[in-house]
Design brief:
Keywords: 4Fe-4S, Endonuclease, Hydrolase, Iron, Iron-sulfur, Metal-binding, Nuclease. The chain has helices at about 5-20, 30-40, 45-55, 60-65, 70-75, 85-100, 105-110, 115-120, 125-135, 145-155, 165-175, 180-195. The chain is mainly alpha-helical and about 210 residues long. It has 2 domains: about 5-25 and about 145-205, Endonuclease Iii, domain 2; about 30-140, Endonuclease III, domain 1 (Orthogonal Bundle). The relative contact order is 0.14.
Length: about 210
C-alpha cells in the first residue's frame, strides 16, 4: 500500500468512527478568521466565549472591529487568554484586510494561494493560523497542520520526530487529491483523533480507531 492509499484508508477509518465534523463552526468567513487567531494557545470553548462577546456588540465585521480601540477589544476577547497579545494580532490582521481590500474578504481570497506569503508577513500569524484562514474562510486548497497531525503521523512512523510544518503539509498535499472539502474534513478528523485517543501523555492505543493502520 502506497502513501496515498494509506492516507485515504486512515481518512475513511476516522470518518466511519467519528462521522463528519463540519468544521469550522462559524457563521461567516470573517468569524473564521477571528477564531483562527483567537484559538492560538487555548481551547475552542474559550474562543466561543470571546466570539460571543464580539457578536453581542455587532463587531463580527472587519470595519466595525477595526474601529474598536485595542484596549476595549482586549477586554472583549479576555476569555480567549493572552488577550492583550491577541488584540494586537487581530488589529494587525484587520490592518492587512482594510488597507489591502477595504475589508472585502471575498476580494482578498480571490487572490488564491498567492495570498499565503503576505498573510505570513502579518505579525502574529504563523503557518497554522494562515492556513486555517485560507482553507476554512477562503475555501482554498491547502492542508492545515497542527500538533495532533504531527503526533499521529510520527507515532505511525510516517514522518520523523523532527519533521517541520512544511514537510508534514507536503506529505498530505503530495499524497491526497487537491480537494478543499477533503482537506477540511481530514484535518478536523485528525483533531478528533488527537483529542480523544492519540493523547500526548497517555495515548489510548488499544481503543484507537486507527489501531493496526
Amino acid at each position: 500500500m502506497n502513501r496515498s492509499q494509506r492516507l485515504i484508508e486512515l481518512y475513511h477509518l476516522l470518518l466511519n468512527h467519528f462521522g463528519p465534523q463540519g468544521w469550522w463552526p462559524a457563521k461567516t468567513s470573517f468569524e473564521v478568521c477571528v477564531g483562527a487567531i483567537l484559538t492560538q494557545n487555548t481551547n475552542w470553548q474559550n474562543v466561543e466565549k470571546a466570539i460571543a462577546n464580539l457578536r453581542r456588540q455587532d463587531l463580527l465585521d472587519p470595519e466595525a472591529l477595526w474601529r474598536v480601540p485595542t484596549d476595549h477589544l482586549a477586554h472583549l476577547i479576555r476569555p480567549a487568554g493572552y488577550y492583550n497579545l491577541k488584540a494586537r494580532r487581530l488589529k494587525n490582521f484587520l490592518e492587512f484586510v482594510m488597507e489591502g481590500w477595504q475589508g472585502d474578504l471575498e476580494a482578498m481570497f480571490a487572490e488564491g494561494l498567492s495570498l499565503r506569503p503576505r498573510l505570513l508577513a502579518v505579525s502574529g500569524i504563523g503557518p497554522e493560523t494562515a492556513d486555517s484562514i485560507l482553507l476554512y474562510a477562503g475555501h482554498l486548497p491547502i492542508f492545515v497542520v497542527d500538533a495532533y497531525t504531527k503526533r499521529i503521523l510520527h507515532r505511525h512512523l510516517l514522518v520523523p520526530e523532527e519533521a517541520g510544518y512544511q514537510e508534514i503539509q507536503d506529505f498530505f498535499m503530495e499524497n491526497l487529491p487537491e480537494d478543499v472539502q477533503l482537506y477540511q474534513e481530514y484535518h478536523a478528523l485528525l483533531v478528533a483523533l488527537g483529542k480523544n485517543f492519540c493523547l500526548k501523555g497517555r495515548p489510548r492505543c488499544p481503543q484507537c480507531p486507527a489501531k493496526g493502520w
